[in-house]
Amino acid sequence: MAVYTEVSDEELQAFIGEYAIGTVLACKGIAEGIENSNYLLTTAQGNFILTLYERRVRREDLPYFLGLMSHLSAKGVACPVPVEGRDGHALRELCGRPAAIVSFLAGMWPRRPTAQQCHALGAAMARMHLAGADFPMRRANDLSLDGWRTLHRATQGSADRVQPGLAARIDGALAELTEAWPRSLPSGVIHADLFPDNVFFLEDRLSGFIDFYFACNDFLAYDMAVALNAWCFERTGEFNVTASRQMIAGYQSVRRLEPAERTALPALCRGAALRFLLTRLYDWLNTPEGALVRRKDPLEYLARLNFHARVADASGYGFD
Amino acid sequence: MAVYTEVSDEELQAFIGEYAIGTVLACKGIAEGIENSNYLLTTAQGNFILTLYERRVRREDLPYFLGLMSHLSAKGVACPVPVEGRDGHALRELCGRPAAIVSFLAGMWPRRPTAQQCHALGAAMARMHLAGADFPMRRANDLSLDGWRTLHRATQGSADRVQPGLAARIDGALAELTEAWPRSLPSGVIHADLFPDNVFFLEDRLSGFIDFYFACNDFLAYDMAVALNAWCFERTGEFNVTASRQMIAGYQSVRRLEPAERTALPALCRGAALRFLLTRLYDWLNTPEGALVRRKDPLEYLARLNFHARVADASGYGFD
Predict the structure, then answer these.
(1) What superfamily does domain A115-317 belong to in CATH?
(2) Under 8 Å between Cβ of A68 and A135
(3) What is the ipTM of this complex?
(4) Are B106 and A29 inside 8 Å of each other by CB?
(5) What would the CATH number be for the domain defined by B9-103?
(6) Is A91 on the interface with B (CB under 8 A)?
(7) For the CA atoms of chain B, what is the radius of gyration?
(8) Which residues of B touch A103 (CB under 8 A)?
(9) Do A6 and B106 touch (CB under 8 A)?
């Protein structure tokens, strides 16, 4: 739930005047996206999404994100498409913030994903990985090992306030992953944040991906590791191996995972769990009381990290 | 900013199945309305608003609110129109809450209302008052004198935590208004919450009213008193008599205020200021820390109450 920046009528009219998308009929702040201010913009031509980029999204990364959405969409991967202004630029400024209008993607994110939806996600993720292969821009994953170390340093003094022993547990996991992290695997453009709220469905058909603001170049199988963490645990905390098996099967129906990717999967899953444990922990410790943001529980990802630490090999995720 | 209830895919599909509004393409929580959960629902037929009624809106009042919107709309007053399901009912249930779908009203609310918009509001308010004259249902204003006394009792023990002397000030204002409150004035259906965020414009044309969930039968001029409080003070606290004069002129271009209404205006304005002072004070004292609601400053309305207390007669509001 976001909407941080309030846009005045005059600013909005002036901004929209730069586009050829018809007169504005409505502009409503929507509860989508944690990091940015999102508005559902209705014009004579239909619905659009207007995003003002707030904290955490670096201005210099925006051409990568917007370029990627245009690239993927041109390759048939359904996602919001940046709309260019009359001057050919999609990235503009509004209320002192970088801002863009993207097309409206129909669909709803699944509140309780089914195994069938996990299969659809796997297949669509693989198609996205293939479609990204010739995207010419590059962006390093700033939330991989180095980024985790930075977050650990920033949180280790306070982590035990959330749970005694947490700082030491993170320290141990980081040391272990420094050893276990793959040196080389098939790489390319990954979404890196494939949570259910970033994947839209119309009934059981996957209608597209949104929120590419963590996208980067990294191991393709790491995208799968994030999604296994985000989609395959029940609300009660149990791992749902049926969901996981379906996601992997869906992925492999489009792109076969290589033996090295399969071997690396448990480590990649531990890394993905640690990544969300650390960012949630950082937010937990740094969100001011009364902020209009629902803090997500970091310990949910400690439990997932602990689960992955007990997985001996990829068969634990339902690989046949 | 609201959205309290999360609707699952299955619940939404089952609910929408009761309507003939086409297949659902999207459903996004919107930051509109403080009291209820609002979703912008996009179907093959266009945009709608889905509202789940949360705290404060009493189920037994909903037929009045929904009936009023249908009535006003049929009389040419632009507002959301409740959409009936296949069984002819507009009021249904979703996630254990009363729920309704209403038509999408184009427009945006003015962040900084102009005097011209105040004139348009006055005229549209008067047209709404005339259109409501033959609405057959009745609902008492539960936020008039009796309601203020209840809120005062609930807050007087803690009010001085917000500002020393506040409880005594409210006590004095209540006693004074008990004497000064008009016994009889032209009455009818009023909106009772005509803040800028409930009045939509397309450029400078008023496109309609939303959020009728405080509507009731009361003195028509009390609606004006609420709007004078809500629209005619600068952010710095000064009263803008030009805006006020325009609002009154707009109103009188449609319906002339009677001498008794003119005489009563300062008392009605004090009452309206006290009403928002009290409800904001109550919310301020009763909103849990960390709730996803921005608390509104009650003292803003203490300042307005103090302003009105110094107004000798209606000429203070720009009456000629």
Answers:
(1) Aminoglycoside phosphotransferase (APH), C-terminal lobe (3.90.1200.10)
(2) yes
(3) 0.81
(4) no
(5) 3.30.200.20
(6) no
(7) 20
(8) none
(9) no
